[in-house]
Amino acid sequence: MNIFDEIGDKESVFKDKKYLDHRFLPDRLPHREEQIRSIAKYWVEALNGVTPPDITIYGKTGTGKTAVAKFAMKQLKEASRDCDVNIRTEYIRCTDYTTEYQVIARLCQQLGRDVPYRGWTKAEIVNTFRNMFKKNAFGQDMILLVVLDEIDILLRNDGDGLLYTLTRTDNVSILSISNYVEFKKFIKPRVRSSLRDREIVFPPYGAQQLVDILEERSKLSFKEGALDDDVIPLCAALAAKEEGDARYALDLLRTAGEIADERDSDIVKGEFVREAKDYIEHNKITDIILTLPSQQQRVLEAILYLTKRKEEITSGRLYEVYKEISKGDSVSYRRIFDFINELEMLGLISTNTVSRGRGKGRTNIIDLQCETSLLEDSLWGV
Ligand code: ADP
Ligand code: MG
Q1: Are 362 and 356 in contact (CB under 8 A)?
Q2: Helix 246-262 and helix 207-221: axis angle, to 10°?
Q3: Quick one: which ligand is closest to 31's CA?
Q4: 281, 246 contact by CB (below 8 A)
Q5: Number of Cα atoms under 13 Å in the Cβ half of residue 287
Q6: Which of 140, 198, 281, 351 is 20 to 30 A from 315, alpha carbon to alpha carbon?
Q7: How far, in Å, from the CA of 138 to the mean position of ligand 1?
Q8: Sequential DSSP letters for 285-307
Q9: Cα–Cα distance between 275 and 270 in angstroms, integer?
Q10: 280: CA distance to ligand 2 center in Å?
């Protein structure tokens, strides 16, 4: 028997795993009806030939922002099929297109103008884009709805020039999506005043809402009877604790199913969900550590060394050990404080200021916030 047939034929709890993939867009998004309706209420104007107002969506990771925006785009596309206004919807993920130039070039390309991704000046690309909105030979206007997903990343990286350009192009309406509620601090007043946007907030999902979401997905993706009764409630409860993150809930469910397959179990059990949680957390931390700059990894290595020796970790002592580890190729003592801050923000360490008593001042004590074994595996490989 062919090895691929043999492996492909292996029994599985899954009927079709693709429905648990992040990229899959379901036909129904339970508990987001209100948000979808809000977007539709603004966008419906496009069907009458009027450019809709700009919209901003906020909410934590996994609260369905991307899914809702794509769903609304799909519905509008369907609705505009037999209407005589020329409506275009474009989705841009600002982690893929990270500068104003790249986004505008991408939009030009999607709208049928072949422009280079580099080489032109910004003015050239912006003018080319704007010219596409001049009335065409038939006197018919085009209305463009642009979804800018994860816009905070672009703003941080490249400033607010993109918003300036888009808000000043006729017939363009922007829907921006941000995980970060305070992203508007990256927008200067000059641009903010032309972005007269309507805001829609996506609250975290509660445990019961996550149960509903997971139940719909599990019907598509798992064989009947493959899930023990406690599996979905457990995934939902764990994800509700992680700030109502539906992506995490789906990851738990999928990983628990994969563990069942690995163990040749034809039922997914509650205990597999707990294992899935450990597995996902482990991978998350490993990913964070592996993508740190190497100097930061050395600082972490120094913290690990001191933690294992049960030494109290002050910044001074940390710097000594760090210098030892980096063997001459080290950053200044002052830079270490930036590194400490960044590691703390990533949740890998915590710092605590303690007073040393009169006249001795205050000292920062650093504590590792993840398992030493996990850190060893990530830094030195298994
Ligand atoms: P965000 O963009 O807010 O981080 P996503 O839209 O990417 O979140 O959602 C994360 C995952 O959860 C996706 O796989 C998405 O399909 C799913 N999801 C989120 N909300 C719902 C919902 N209400 N119903 C069904 N699936 C959902
Ligand atoms: Mg998203």
Answers
A1: yes
A2: 50
A3: 1
A4: no
A5: 6
A6: 281
A7: 41
A8: HHHHHHTS-HHHHHHHHHHHHHH
A9: 9
A10: 19
Per-residue pLDDT of 52-69, as tens digits, reads 999 999 999 999 999 999
The CATH number for 292-380, chosen from 3.90.600.10, 3.40.190.10, 1.10.10.10, 2.60.40.3710, is 1.10.10.10
Q: Whose CA is nearest to atom 19 of ligand 1?
A: 64
CATH for the stretch 206-289? 1.10.8.60
Ligand 1 atom at minimum distance from 69 CA: 6
Instruction: Count the Cβ atoms, other than its own, within 10 Å of residue 308.
Output: 12
Single-letter amino acid, residue 150: E
Three-state DSSP class for residue 320:
helix
In this structure, the residue with its CA closest to atom 14 of ligand 1 is 22
Q: Is the pLDDT of residue 223 over 90?
A: yes
List, chain by chain if needed, residues with CB within 6 Å of any ligand 1 atom.
22, 26, 29-32, 59, 61-67, 213, 246-247, 250
Q: How far is the CA of 199 from the centre of ligand 2 (A)?
A: 16
pTM, 2 dp: 0.83
CA angle (280, 236, 64) in 5-degree steps: 85
User: Can you identify the CATH homologous superfamily of domain 33-202?
Assistant: P-loop containing nucleotide triphosphate hydrolases (3.40.50.300)
Closest ligand 1 atom to residue 63 Cα is 3
**136: pLDDT strictly greater than 70:** no
What tokens does 93 get?
């993920």
pLDDT band with cut points at 50, 70 and 90 for residue 321: very high
Find the 126 Cα to ligand 2 centroid distance in Å.
27
Query: Over the stretch 139-169, which tens digit does the pLDDT of each residue have?
Result: 567 899 999 999 998 998 899 999 999 999 9
